[in-house]
């Protein structure tokens, strides 16, 4: 409900406050659109749940929720789109483009084990590139539908370290990486309230569709303490899908130059496939640790992204 209220407030504000400006997505003739923006909001990675699962199995260690989910990301929606006019009634134009997105977080969290407490931190990055192609359907005056197909290349990495204070005292380091490719179906909507302002919605609704790569998942963790050492690893395939909704508005600062504002919410569902898992200690094979690595990898968890995006775009006409 809070998200819906925020969307309503943004759209109402744009409707009341912005006048004398052109439409957001309407393209006349052939054009190259250059765009970029920034994002402020929260990013929760599936690695958080995976770490919780593996730590419970391997050392009866309970992780608290990770902190520092919210931050500002300066590379968001950076890319270009080319629009080619079709002039075929409802079928207005064909478009193809590429878009880069990057999110970085410095997470911190605490943990508890039977006779001690842990202090943990991790530097995290999430990067994905969308290659999209679609058409613009001018179905009614001022109203356009933009069905599209998106191929997304995704990668994420967590480099972590932690200290355990108690019995045993310990130090650990970890690198967890994952990535893959997936085909996604999406659709956009644009509505011109007048010649001066446009509201828009952009959705990813289904995937994987037509194309899915096996991807790759890998986790390596080393831990040393008073009287022991442990090495744990897991690797295998990696798949994902995405559902996204973006709601906002756009106006022109000068001919060809547009300012955009939107509320973003995205859920990516991810899991490893057919992983190899192993955990060994200085005294031999660690059964529970190995099981924890396997369960952690194969569970379906989510990346959650939600926040506010501000951006600009500039159209170069090729008439």
UniProtKB/TrEMBL annotation:
This is Uncharacterized protein. The lineage of its organism: Bacteria, Pseudomonadati, Spirochaetota, Spirochaetia, Leptospirales.
